[in-house]
Structure to design on (954 residues):
């Protein structure tokens, strides 16, 4: 039967031993959405074309958060990320923004927590910058889209 | 017309001047959900009653994240939180867990970003602890439920 | 009956609400000892007189650790320390070094955890600097010597 | 005679006691320059108009660094900054960029270290982003331009 | 003659060069004790069986502290820990709790500082949670029990 | 044509992918100067000979800052530094102090940002310790002196 790996046989949390795992190239992509009023989305997009600081701020926050994952998520291993990128996409259907983050490294554990932390903090930063004009935003759909490398091999949502 | 307060008249990000604002008692409550397979929820709940480390780990992560909000969200002010609490509730309808965080302080800015950051990191920690048994979890519904204090007064979702 | 204040009525950890407590001047002094071989102590003291970097390094580590207490101890409140000092005293009887730290602030909670964290990290730093020459050091006697201010008033060990 | 305040009578570093100082409104402005080849400056300015991420990244780094000053500079007190702003100005005479940061708070100590740390890290971030195209950049002229508030009153460079 | 390796020939602190050292599997186990009144120990143990949050909180604090060792101890190298575990044992003879931490990695330096930092912070966290009911606790007996790997080979206390 | 590598084809900041780069031995040396009144320099040098805490404090700050570079400079990769050293040299001609830092590692990216961050924070710490006696200090001449290793090979200023 499957088991929660971060809990040992006595039911105690621990940072699992990955020292026996092979060092392989790994990457993960995660996404998040932030739902807002159409006027709020419009305001970000206008800012974007004219000046850029709104999305640039959220992107930097997401990149830095990826590097701090093991400091935020207690049982995550410290990792030497070799790449982090964060993308935004306006989605008028939502209406709102979609956030995507990709993390990469050669290591002994997967990097999906880094990608998930990155999109979460990028979305929270967008929220922070827009909260004065929109009190009803909702952050959601935070999930892993794709994982590559590691023992379990490649995986993608819906595949 | 309303404006993005974190962007100045030249379109540049800045940490807004709150030095003229009154120091008042403020609190905020936020929530998040993490959707999972019924078996995963069952596993957490069993762990919980027997041993407690799964939810305790996520709760501590959420409390510590609230304290680090200004380090994660670039334009947030450093704050002296006077209280943080994180609660979990199993929701078999979801199915999954619901996370609630309440932050409190006497200060010059609201604490909704602290509450939102807290539930986000608590949910990410649950995700981390369960990802070995469930690859399809989705974190969502991250939003503010209630705010008290400050110039704009009390506010609650749906009120 | 007395209760563990950091555990709520449901047995869950939380950062207790101090918003109703008065803002008063508070200070705390804590100590620690690090037992070592007489030759190791001699080596530190020689370094000290000649150059100073051994104790200076440990002192800085202790001062910085005091400022990071709420980041290290999950249920500690963030505090605005107004003073931190760290002192060392060679004790040939031990034999070893004694470390003392005093922290001060005007705030709503006591600062004994800050003083205790400070002496602990200062002692760990001494250990780190001497471990190449002494594998049997023991850090101990970490305790609060004196507390001033706050609702419970002044208190000192042995008084 | 004047004395190094961060060194006590025994010649030991300590975080000075500010608990007796009045809580007053304070601000400080600091600047830095980063000298580069004219082609490098041209490249940043082109990026700026078209897209904005170069200066936005350096600005965010400067804002976040101001908040982390007491974590970086060992004897600085933790402070609750109420405002941080970072500005850039292309100076074709240098040739290069000039960086300005203003910090503000109501507190017991000045904020010039926060402003100086902010411009330093903003300049280092510009350096990082341009180093692939220019190996001879030099960061300099890091100084305080103006201080307001506190016991010693208002002060400005050259006044 | 033996030398303090963290102090160079001029008596100055530095982070020693380990780049020539082989990358080998290393582990270390350290312990600490926290002496308390029998009633305090009883209270923790009762909490433990019923709910678990007291020890779980201290365990998480210890695991996170191990990951932050190089940030706390100035001359420690940043390390990629591959495993951290923290255990508690009630000792009615003390009376009090004993804390054990084991750290592991494949690297160029030993991990005893990580294990020592982990038990110290776990013990400080227990202290914090119990200080409202017991003002006379003492943390002590912080030492390395066992080291494996590296040039100097395996070592254990008392062997 | 050369390009700003930290900005992608859409003009967005990202942490560049270094996973394909070889892991080689790398080092970098950077310097900074801090100009002050002759009396201030005299005061530091007297302190130095007698007690050492002024330069020791700045040295520790510089070493710790090197380790935090990826946390401060948004697009820097996390690195496992294998050595950091910081040196000071009084320069009566300046008049003031010169600071030098050397960083080393086996990795996929250069360490010049670590060396530059180290000298900057060491100089800021000196500034902080002397600001009570000298309001006109200027930090400058922050530049890379020498780089070794990596694809582009050895490089030194003026060579």
């Amino acid at each position: 039967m499957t088991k929660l790996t971060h809990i040992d046989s006595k039911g105690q949390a621990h940072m699992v031993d990955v020292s026996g795992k092979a060092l392989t190239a790994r990457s993960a992509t995660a996404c998040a959405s932030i739902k807002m009023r159409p006027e709020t989305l419009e305001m970000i997009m206008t800012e974007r074309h004219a000046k850029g600081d709104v999305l640039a701020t959220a992107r930097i926050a997401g990149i830095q958060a990826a590097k701090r994952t093991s400091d935020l998520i207690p049982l995550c291993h410290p990792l030497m990320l070799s790449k982090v990128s964060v993308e935004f996409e306006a989605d008028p259907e939502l209406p709102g923004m979609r956030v995507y983050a990709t993390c990469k490294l050669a290591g002994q554990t997967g990097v999906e927590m880094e990608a998930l932390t990155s999109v979460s903090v990028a979305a929270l930063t967008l929220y922070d910058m827009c909260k004065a004009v929109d009190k009803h935003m909702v952050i959601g759909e935070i999930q892993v889209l794709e994982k590559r490398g590691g023992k379990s091999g490649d995986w993608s949502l819906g595949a």
